[in-house]
Design goal:
Blueprint (H helix, E strand, L loop, with lengths): L1 H32 L7 H38 L7 H29 L6 H7 L2 H15 L7 H35 L1
This protein binds protoporphyrin IX containing FE.
Length: about 190
């Protein structure tokens, strides 16, 4: 029974963690784009985004990560045999990348607060695709385990995910260009 409790809260932790990661980098987009605003709007917006980012990271995202990891340790301690599975080793390699991404976002947050981050909104939009890729790969490994099929259906799903990510990027680019055109015609 303990195993199911650990698994349930492992999944709840993942949902919270990813909600935090996705929203955090969206806030970075707005934070970076606030530089285009005139004063005093720029300072007001940046101060507000800084507070929102800090709260989101410390109260939602990091606790979500901690719950995921602690519950995973609980899962493994109740079923230590699972440690011998090859799929888990591959999954853990991707989880390490996800943890690196999490702490890297924390670093960006501190740089933005100090005004030392040179990233553009467009670059942050692209960065926000990284956790999507990790989420898909890790969930596929966790669900299919050693029997992850590499047939046509899997590749079609991969193509669908990539094209969705590309469409989001293209839509954001179109909106930016439209906005630039509008402001140059007004100016
Ligand atoms: C500290 C890192 C992690 C470890 C050690 C770990 C370990 C585990 C273990 C042992 C299970 C139970 C597998 C089973 O019952 O067959 C599991 C389930 C699961 N994990 Fe993780 N996990 C980690 C992080 C993650 C992350 C970051 C995600 C998602 C992005 C994830 C997604 C899942 C899913 C979806 C399941 C349910 C699979 C199923 O019941 O078929 N895990 N994890």
């Amino acid at each position: 029974m303990a195993y199911y409790w650990f698994k349930a809260f492992h999944l709840i932790g993942i949902v919270v963690w990813f909600a935090g990661l996705f929203y955090l980098v969206r806030l970075f987009v707005y934070h970076a784009e606030a530089s285009q605003q005139p004063e005093p709007a720029q300072t007001i917006l940046k101060t507000q985004y800084e507070i929102m980012e800090k709260r989101l990271y410390n109260i939602i995202t990091t606790p979500g990560m901690a719950v995921t990891v602690v519950m995973a340790i609980g899962l493994i301690s109740t079923e230590p045999e699972i440690l011998k599975s090859g799929w888990l080793h591959i999954k853990l390699a991707f989880v390490v990348l996800l943890l690196a991404y999490h702490f890297y976002c924390g670093r960006i947050m501190r740089q933005l607060a100090k005004g030392e981050c040179q990233w553009t909104g467009q670059q942050f939009r692209a960065l926000n695709e990284a956790p999507t890729v990790l989420l898909v790969v890790i969930v596929l490994l966790a669900v299919f385990k050693g029997s992850l099929p590499l047939d046509l259906t899997t590749w079609l799903i991969v193509a669908l995910v990539i094209s969705m990510a590309a469409s989001i990027q293209l839509y954001a680019k179109k909106r930016r260009l439209d906005q630039e055109k509008l402001s140059s015609s007004q100016g």
